[in-house]
Each structure stands twice: as structure tokens, then as C-alpha cells.
């Protein structure tokens, strides 16, 4: 039986990856951090909670001693490092904590693997945020980096260390530069899920208005379950490497809003400019969307568009779900949950 350790098991990707690996007959050690109340709702949604081959293990990625004990005790064949402070907006408020969790956290694991058993295969959850200020599009493995937030700078540190441990110690260390990937399991603070969930609540009379920041930011959005399969494929490849996973299509936040309301049979008409812009129900004239400056970031990544050609050629990986389909899946899940009174 193959063994894998997945950090950040309570997150969106942790749930999809755990479910993927369990279906393939893996023994999975999933790490979560101690808190006053730990929430396993995502594992429950994918049907992984309580699986006989899933063992949940407490781990704080800031504690290097824990990293050593974890690797020594379980000696997994594969380690997928997904845990991080993953919200870009918060990284401007908590830059030092983000640097430690998102930057130094992966280094703790790399060190533990190097010292305990350097044959263990390691996946680092790198991010398209490291491309930051546009240098070239579409962005691929050779595009220069220009991080625009403490989060992106921390992810870039972890990316380079992954590459450095691969080259210095001959470790099987892979960096997956993943573009935004979404699903009904996405946290509500991220823009896609905030939009689908609030829109569902508005239709059900549980919310009045959707408040957003920069509507013109462009993102390359894909479906999270497919990206987690890409992570697995990277660790099955003959050689360790860096891969971009993306859809090669970019859309504005504004079009994601339109897509969401369209899935609910509502057409949006935009009026006004800048912070005074509003989105109206084209039929009734009711204001549905407002701009709130609170949601703007001190510096923004305006355009992400990824080229996944290398992953397709080497891993046979390609995205399958269109953005319209993904949006519809998310809206329907949020309608169902809100009707049932669920709060996640
Ligand atoms: P989530 O925010 O959903 O999950 C993050 C996970 O990290 C949670 O399980 C969280 O635990 C855990 N975590 C946070 N801090 C600590 C800590 N100090 N010790 C232990 N665990 C901790 O993120 P996603 O699943 O969306 O993303 C997975 C990874 O991929 C992240 O590293 C993210 O930065 C990266 N990434 C994500 C992309 C995306 O579009 N989703 C794109 C590119 C990269 P808790 O539940 O307790 O908060
Ligand atoms: P991102 O995702 O920063 O790309 O990071 P997020 O969904 O937070 O923002 C996407 C874009 O939407 C704009 N935006 C808003 N964002 C949020 N959260 N809330 C709003 O109200 C809002 N209005 C407009 C943002 O300014 C931004 O341009 C995600 C995370 O999963 C990271 O962990 C990951 O590394 C990257 O994707 C790739």
C-alpha cells in the first residue's frame, strides 16, 4: 500500500487530494492544526472522513521539531505540502505570520525530509501569485517572477527552496505553480465562492447586496479536483520538476459575477464608475452589486493567464471543466446548502 502525507487536510485541496489518493488505495496521513474547534466539513463532503485508510494527525507547520517527528514516525513515500496562510488579502495585514507559515513552513518539511529520508517525494504548493506584476503572458515555467504581496513573496521563497533542495541534495522535490482553482469547497473569503454564495443567499432572500473590490482583476480559474490530480501526477513522474497548472483562459471578476447571476437567470447591467459603480438587475433595476474600497489590496495582481503546455506534454494533464460549468456547479451547491441552512 502506498503512503502519503498531506498537510492542510482541512483545506479545499486537502479534501480533494485525500479523496483522490484514498480512491487509489493509498494510506493517507492528513495533518491538521490544533484549534478550539477543528472543522472537517470538507473531508465529510468528499466522503473521506472516517475512511479506514485516512489517519488524521495534529501538526503545526511552524514547529520544526514536529516536522521531524512527523516524517520519522510515518516515513511516507510522498509528502504533499498544502498547508499555508493562503489568503493574499490577509497577508498584507499579517506579513510576518504569513512569511513564517507560507515561507518557512515548507522549509521545515524540506529539512526534515533531507535529514530523515531524502528519498521521500515532496510536492510544494506554489502559486501563480509569484508572477505578480505582468512580465509576459501567458505565464509559464520560464516567466520571470515579480511577487506583489507578502503571500507571493513567501511562496516564492518556498518555491526556490524546493528547487534548491532538488538541485543540492538530489531530492525528488516538485514545485506545482498552480493558477487559481475553485470549487464548492472553496473558502468563503475567496472571490468566486463569495460571489456564488452571496448570490444564492440574495435569491433566497437571505442577503441584500454583494460588496466587492476590484472587478477588473483577471484570473485563470480552473476546477480544484482536477488540479489535485495534477499534483499527484507530478510525484509519479520519472524526474522531479516544476510545472504550471492552468486553463489558458482568463476572465475578469466582473465576468464571473455576470456568469453567476446568469446561472440564476438574472442579467446584470453595470452603471457608474470606480467606487461608485453598481451592478443592477437588468429587469427590475434593483442594486445587486456595490463596490466597497475595503476589498481593494494595497497592490494588485491585475492579470493571470497560464500556459499548462509542459504539464500536458510530460504528465498528460489537462483541465476539463469550463469556467461556466464550474460556476454553475458552485452556484447549485450554494443554493442547496443555503436552502438546507448550512453555514459553510
Ligand atoms: P485553504 O486555505 O483552503 O487551506 C489551507 C490549509 O492550510 C488549511 O488546512 C489550514 O488549516 C492549513 N494551515 C494554515 N495555517 C496552518 C498552520 N500554521 N499549521 C498547520 N496548518 C495550517 O487553501 P487551498 O486548499 O485552496 O490551497 C492549498 C495550498 O495551495 C495552499 O498552500 C495555497 O496557498 C496553495 N495554492 C492554492 C491555490 C488555489 O487557487 N486554491 C492556487 C495556488 C496555490 P485550518 O483549516 O486550520 O485553517
Ligand atoms: P487570489 O484569490 O488573491 O487570486 O488568491 P481571491 O479570490 O482572494 O482574489 C481574486 C481577485 O479578486 C479580486 N477581488 C476580491 N477578492 C476577494 N477575496 N474578495 C473580494 O471582495 C474581491 N473583490 C475583488 C482580488 O483583488 C483579486 O484580484 C488565490 C488564493 O487561493 C491563493 O492562495 C492562490 O495562491 C492564488 O489564488 C493563485
UniProtKB/TrEMBL annotation:
<keyword id="KW-0536">Nodulation</keyword>
<dbReference type="InterPro" id="IPR036291">
    <property type="entry name" value="NAD(P)-bd_dom_sf"/>
</dbReference>
<feature type="domain" description="NAD(P)-binding">
    <location>
        <begin position="5"/>
        <end position="330"/>
    </location>
</feature>
<dbReference type="InterPro" id="IPR006368">
    <property type="entry name" value="GDP_Man_deHydtase"/>
</dbReference>
<comment type="function">
    <text>Catalyzes the conversion of GDP-D-mannose to GDP-4-dehydro-6-deoxy-D-mannose.</text>
</comment>
<dbReference type="GO" id="GO:0070401">
    <property type="term" value="F:NADP+ binding"/>
</dbReference>
<dbReference type="Pfam" id="PF16363">
    <property type="entry name" value="GDP_Man_Dehyd"/>
</dbReference>
<keyword id="KW-0456">Lyase</keyword>
<dbReference type="GO" id="GO:0042351">
    <property type="term" value="P:'de novo' GDP-L-fucose biosynthetic process"/>
</dbReference>
<keyword id="KW-0521">NADP</keyword>
<comment type="similarity">
    <text>Belongs to the NAD(P)-dependent epimerase/dehydratase family. GDP-mannose 4,6-dehydratase subfamily.</text>
</comment>
<protein>
    <recommendedName>
        <fullName>GDP-mannose 4,6-dehydratase</fullName>
        <ecNumber>4.2.1.47</ecNumber>
    </recommendedName>
</protein>
<dbReference type="InterPro" id="IPR016040">
    <property type="entry name" value="NAD(P)-bd_dom"/>
</dbReference>
<dbReference type="GO" id="GO:0008446">
    <property type="term" value="F:GDP-mannose 4,6-dehydratase activity"/>
</dbReference>
Amino acid at each position: 500500500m502506498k503512503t502519503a502525507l498531506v498537510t492542510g487536510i482541512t483545506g479545499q485541496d486537502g479534501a480533494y487530494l485525500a479523496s483522490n489518493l484514498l480512491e487509489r488505495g493509498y494510506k493517507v496521513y492528513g495533518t491538521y492544526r490544533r484549534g478550539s474547534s477543528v472543522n472537517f466539513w470538507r473531508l465529510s463532503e468528499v466522503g473521506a472522513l472516517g475512511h479506514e485508510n485516512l489517519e488524521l494527525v495534529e501538526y503545526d507547520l511552524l514547529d520544526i521539531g514536529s516536522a521531524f517527528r512527523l516524517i520519522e514516525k510515518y516515513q511516507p513515500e510522498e509528502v504533499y505540502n498544502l498547508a499555508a496562510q493562503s489568503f493574499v488579502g490577509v497577508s498584507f495585514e499579517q506579513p510576518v505570520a504569513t512569511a513564517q507559515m507560507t515561507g518557512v513552513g515548507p522549509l521545515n518539511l524540506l529539512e526534515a525530509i533531507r535529514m530523515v529520508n531524502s528519498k521521500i517525494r515532496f510536492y510544494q504548493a506554489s502559486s501563480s501569485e509569484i508572477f505578480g506584476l505582468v512580465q509576459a503572458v501567458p505565464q509559464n515555467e520560464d516567466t520571470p517572477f515579480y511577487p506583489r504581496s507578502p503571500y507571493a513573496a513567501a511562496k516564492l521563497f518556498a518555491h526556490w527552496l524546493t528547487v534548491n533542495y532538488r538541485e543540492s541534495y538530489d531530492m525528488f522535490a516538485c514545485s506545482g505553480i498552480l493558477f487559481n482553482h475553485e470549487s464548492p469547497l472553496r473558502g468563503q473569503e475567496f472571490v468566486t465562492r463569495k460571489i456564488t454564495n452571496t448570490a444564492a443567499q440574495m435569491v433566497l432572500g437571505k442577503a441584500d447586496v454583494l460588496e466587492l473590490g476590484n472587478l477588473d482583476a483577471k484570473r485563470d480559474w480552473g476546477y480544484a479536483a482536477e488540479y489535485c490530480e495534477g499534483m499527484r501526477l507530478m510525484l509519479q513522474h520519472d524526474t522531479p520538476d516544476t510545472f504550471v497548472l492552468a486553463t489558458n483562459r482568463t476572465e475578469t471578476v466582473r465576468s464571473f459575477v455576470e456568469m453567476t447571476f446568469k446561472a440564476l437567470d438574472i442579467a446584470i447591467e453595470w452603471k457608474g464608475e470606480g467606487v461608485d459603480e453598481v451592478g443592477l438587475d437588468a429587469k427590475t433595476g434593483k442594486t445587486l452589486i456595490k463596490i466597497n474600497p475595503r476589498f481593494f489590496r494595497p497592490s494588485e495582481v491585475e492579470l493571470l493567464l497560464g500556459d499548462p503546455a509542459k504539464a500536458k506534454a510530460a504528465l498528460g494533464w489537462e483541465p476539463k471543466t469550463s469556467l461556466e460549468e464550474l460556476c454553475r456547479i458552485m452556484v447549485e451547491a450554494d443554493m442547496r446548502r443555503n436552502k438546507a441552512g448550512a453555514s459553510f
